[in-house]
């Protein structure tokens, strides 16, 4: 859950959490993501009963997340007592709801949570592949017909999530997984040299700044989603292709050689990106990069991938290295805990809050948990 600071209380830079009023909580990567991550952590801890708190969060979601039950559309923001404040015309709140419910099912064995996850998953698939009317998106005659990489990315992640340790679900969504992988791969453009965030419906580049938009962090996240898919499919050629095109290439083009860190947005033709925050260094691209390169190294034992993981980790955890007489901090706040989310181009804290309505407690704990598990496995294997 995204925590917020009372509007009447002064906010110190080190303790700032969320730029929202005191009675709101972000419902996309806040409650949904936090429930999923914390339950995932509990579900692998033998004998650990601390899933009771995530279960309470899950019950809150079942009671309050959907704006007008039995319809499936979920709120993006709720008041603290569960009243809807804002709804987005996308699938992402529903995706994180599905993720949270599936993790609760795996941790508790309560079939009600699995039923919630599957019913929401099937609704999302209908919106994406059959009829998006229920999302409330207006069909404007002048708007370009665009496929965003975010949609098949999220669906592929859910296919992986629901299929883990569940052969029935794996078979149910097998065709969807293949469709998602092909949809993501069509974002590899310009003779395989660039991953573009938006393409046309037929998989070709679209004109203008929207078509030239690159998001290195998104490409890296898509990379490890695809890598997990290739591993499940036992497809070594796809693994090699993904590591090169969705991990190594986007990282090298997106890394700031002067100041370190990964740029948020780029323009494929080297024009100035239209996003005002394009040159900032955010927590989540670095989190996804660490997962991607460590997973790639685990699969290939290519030392270059391990070096890239170390490069990102050294930038990310610079404050920890300060204990060993290293340079100044980047993301972690060693005094008050958690991570700063937004650094400027030079790597200094630009915004002091630790989360907002779009990004909260999700990418960081997922990264730390997954990297810990990957490193443990590597140590055991050695």
From TrEMBL:
Keyword Iron: no
Listed pathway(s): Amino-sugar metabolism; N-acetylneuraminate degradation
Enzyme class: isomerase
UniProt keywords, alphabetically: Isomerase
InterPro entries the record matches: 6-hairpin_glycosidase_sf, 6hp_glycosidase-like_sf, AGE/CE
GO terms (BP aspect): carbohydrate metabolic process
Enzyme Commission code(s) on record: 5.1.3.8
UniProt catalytic activity: an N-acyl-D-glucosamine = an N-acyl-D-mannosamine
Subunit comment: Homodimer. Forms a heterodimer with renin and inhibits its activity.
Gene name in the database record: RENBP
Family: Belongs to the N-acylglucosamine 2-epimerase family.
GO molecular function terms attached to this record: N-acylglucosamine 2-epimerase activity
Species per Swiss-Prot/TrEMBL record: Phascolarctos cinereus
The keyword Isomerase appears for this protein: yes
Protein name: N-acylglucosamine 2-epimerase
């Amino acid at each position: 859950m995204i925590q917020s600071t009372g509007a009447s209380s002064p906010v110190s830079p080190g303790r700032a959490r969320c730029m929202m009023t005191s009675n709101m909580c972000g419902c996309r990567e806040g409650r949904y993501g936090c429930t999923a991550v914390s339950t995932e952590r509990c579900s692998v801890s033998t004998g650990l009963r601390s899933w009771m708190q995530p279960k309470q969060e899950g019950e809150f979601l079942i009671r309050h997340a959907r704006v007008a039950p039995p319809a499936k559309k979920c709120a993006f923001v709720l008041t603290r007592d569960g009243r809807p404040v804002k709804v987005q015309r996308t699938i992402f709140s529903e995706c994180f709801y599905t993720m949270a419910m599936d993790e609760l099912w795996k941790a508790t064995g309560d079939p009600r949570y699995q039923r919630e996850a599957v019913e929401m998953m099937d609704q999302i698939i209908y919106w994406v592949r059959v009829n998006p009317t229920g999302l409330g998106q207006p069909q404007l005659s002048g708007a370009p017909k665009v496929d965003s990489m975010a949609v098949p990315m999220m669906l592929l992640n859910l296919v992986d999530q629901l299929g883990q340790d569940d052969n029935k679900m794996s078979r149910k969504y097998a065709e969807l997984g293949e469709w998602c992988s092909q949809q993501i791969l069509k974002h590899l453009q310009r003779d395989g040299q660039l991953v573009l965030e938006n393409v046309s419906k037929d998989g070709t580049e679209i004109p203008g700044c929207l078509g030239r938009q690159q998001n290195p962090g998104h490409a890296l996240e898509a990379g490890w989603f695809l890598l997990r898919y290739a591993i499940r499919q036992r497809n070594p050629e796809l693994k090699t292709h993904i590591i090169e095109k969705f991990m190594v290439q986007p990282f090298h083009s997106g890394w700031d050689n002067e100041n370190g860190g990964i740029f948020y947005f780029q323009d494929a033709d080297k024009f100035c990106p239209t996003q005002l925050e394009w040159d900032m260094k955010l927590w989540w691209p670095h989190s996804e990069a660490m997962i991607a390169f460590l997973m790639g190294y685990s699969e290939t034992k290519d030392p270059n991938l391990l070096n890239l993981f170390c490069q990102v980790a050294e930038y990310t955890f610079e404050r920890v290295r300060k204990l060993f007489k290293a340079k100044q901090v980047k993301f972690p706040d060693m005094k008050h805990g958690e991570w700063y989310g937004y650094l400027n181009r030079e790597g200094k804290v630009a915004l002091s809050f630790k989360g907002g309505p779009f990004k909260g407690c999700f990418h960081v704990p997922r990264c730390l948990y997954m990297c810990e598990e990957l490193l443990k496995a590597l140590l055991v294997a050695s």
